[in-house]
Amino acid sequence: MIAIAFKGGGPYGSEVTRGQDLSGRDFSGKTLIKQDFKTSILRQANFKGAKLLGASFFDADLTGADLSDADLRGADFSLANVTKANLTNANLEGAQTTGNTSFKGSIITGADFTDVPLRDDQREYLCKLADGVNSTTGNATRDTLFCN
């Protein structure tokens, strides 16, 4: 049997970040543009203040992750589990989501969801929690989610 390891892309170096268990890892404040975290387990990982433009979290488990103050513009959250995550003041402008992406139980105060495609039920759920204004973009969370 041959084991196949996927190389992680992006400036995190040659360390493999795709398909790995990186639970509890500290990526806070790091520049991880277009980093490949596909199918990784990132439970309770710390991404506070990280620059994650275009990063791929495709089918990743971000349960309880700290994404507060993170720049997540254009990140791919397709099929990702983003439950109970801290998205306080995160900028998710243009991030990708799919039908199964879940933000249940997440903190979204001040998060910017501009141009993020969400299922109607996810949008309705997030609108019940939405408050605050993103300190970077100046956009109100409720406005970016098109809440009534």
TrEMBL record:
It holds the Pfam family Pentapeptide. InterPro entries: 5peptide_repeat, At2g44920-like. SUPFAM superfamilies: Pentapeptide repeat-like (SSF141571). It comes from the Eukaryota. Transmembrane segments: none annotated. GO terms for cellular component: chloroplast thylakoid. This is Thylakoid lumenal 15 kDa protein 1, chloroplastic. It comes from Dioscorea cayennensis subsp. rotundata (White Guinea yam). The gene is LOC120269056.
